[in-house]
Amino acid sequence: MKTKSIFLSALFLSIGLFTVSCSNDDNDGETIVPIQGTYKLSKTGGIVNGSEVLVDAIQNQSGCNPDYLDLRLSNAAVMGDYGPNCALTETTGTYVRSHNDLTLTFGNSSTTSDIMNLTNKELKIKDKTSGIITVYTR
């Protein structure tokens, strides 16, 4: 009988430990999807009269691969730009993610954006200075 009591106590204790949630587990709306990866430029836009308006990115050259942003594990950022005749120009810089902020630095220019959405298929950022929204897809 004593063994049964110890077993039941251990069972209830285990169940209790697995069902308790701590406020430290909350991520304050921050996504936990890794940001590293290669993203193709898809759409750009902004907020017009309180509504988000996005259009196909005009930066992408017709008939070429879409421009891209490659965020690497080493915190290197590579921006790929397909120009006339689909000639690829790559610019290397760095990135820093702090909660839901993404700072990209290329040369002497830095931009900080809010990460509006980050999933396994999409990265949507909004430039904190200009308000321009950029959508990248994987």
What is the string of helix and strand elements?
HEEEEEEEEE
Distance between the termini: 59 Å
Shape: globular
Proportion of residues in extended strands: over 45%
Q: Looking across the biggest beta sheet, what order are the strands in?
A: 1-3-4-5-6-7-8-9
What's the total count of β strands? 9
Structural class: mainly beta
Uncertain spans: 16-27
Helix content: 10-25%
Please outline the major beta sheet: 8 strands, antiparallel, barrel
Number of helices in the DSSP assignment: 1
Mean pLDDT over the residues: 85
Radius of gyration: 22 Å
Index terms:
138 residues; mainly beta; eight-stranded antiparallel β-barrel; 9 strands; 49% strand
Topology:
Elements: H1 2-19, E1 37-48, E2 51-56, E3 68-71, E4 76-82, E5 88-98, E6 101-106, E7 109-118, E8 122-127, E9 133-137
Antiparallel strand pairs: 1-2, 1-3, 1-9, 3-4, 4-5, 5-6, 6-7, 7-8, 8-9
Describe the structure.
- Mean pLDDT is 85; it is low at 16-27.
- With 138 residues, this protein is mainly β.
- The N and C termini lie far apart (59 Å).
- A hairpin with a 3-residue loop joins strand 7 (109-118) and strand 8 (122-127).
- It is built from 1 helix and 9 strands, in the order αβββββββββ.
- It has an 8-stranded antiparallel β-barrel with strand order 1-3-4-5-6-7-8-9.
- The longest helix is centred in the first third of the chain and has 18 residues, at 2-19.
- The chain is 13% helix and 49% strand.
